[in-house]
Amino acid sequence: MALCKKLPDIGGSNSTCKNASVCQKSEDSGTYTNLGTYDGRTQFVKLEANGFWALFPNGETHKDKNNKTCQLKSYYVFVCDKDSPWIPVIGQPGQPAAASSIPGTPIVTFDNTSCTYNVTVRYSGACFTVTPAAQIAVLSAGSVILILVTVAFATYCIAGVTYNYCTGAEQRNLVPHSEFWEELPVNIREGFRFTFSCCQSTSTKTYEQL
What we know:
It is a single chain. This protein has helices at residues 141-166, 178-199, and strands at 22-25, 32-36, 44-46, 51-56, 61-63, 69-71, 73-80, 87-88, 100-101, 107-111, 116-123. By secondary structure, it is α+β, with helices and mostly antiparallel strands. The protein folds into two domains: 22-126, Distorted Sandwich (Cation-dependent Mannose-6-phosphate Receptor, Chain A); 141-196, no CATH class. The strands form four sheets. It has a five-stranded mixed sheet with strand order 3-4-7-11-10, with no helix packed on it. A two-stranded antiparallel ribbon has the order 1-2. Strands 5-6 form a two-stranded antiparallel ribbon.
């Protein structure tokens, strides 16, 4: 089998394992059977426990004892076992480059109803911890407006002072629109005074003279 790619040509050009990812060789007849392929869309899904699984569909057509046909597929479960690294067999006769031997004996069953080979393998590479990505802080609309107003006001002050200085304005007049800013506190005070005066009752009680 090959996890993330297709196997090299096995069994000759007429073999059904051509372009397969999971292939089985019969010890009796020496023939090969395509049990599933990797088409680039195969997903490796994390298990709730430490490990992952993968489904290799689109194997060759299979006929059961009742002459019912189905398409073979392989469902692999890789269980975390730190003491089970896959052993490289590079250089051994009949082995493709970068091949590895699965340690121990995988658990293999066949579900005739779903036409699926279920394989459980212990694998040290399945022992991993998923670290969640850091959350990106999103600014609220109010925060964005506050930043824009602050930047605009700072730009206004710096540009205004620079312009007034270059045009020879006196020190007290360097602030842009200095008269407006000088009168602003007075205008605010008068605004509050007017607002509160409107809320107060101005009517007085009078009595008819006898």
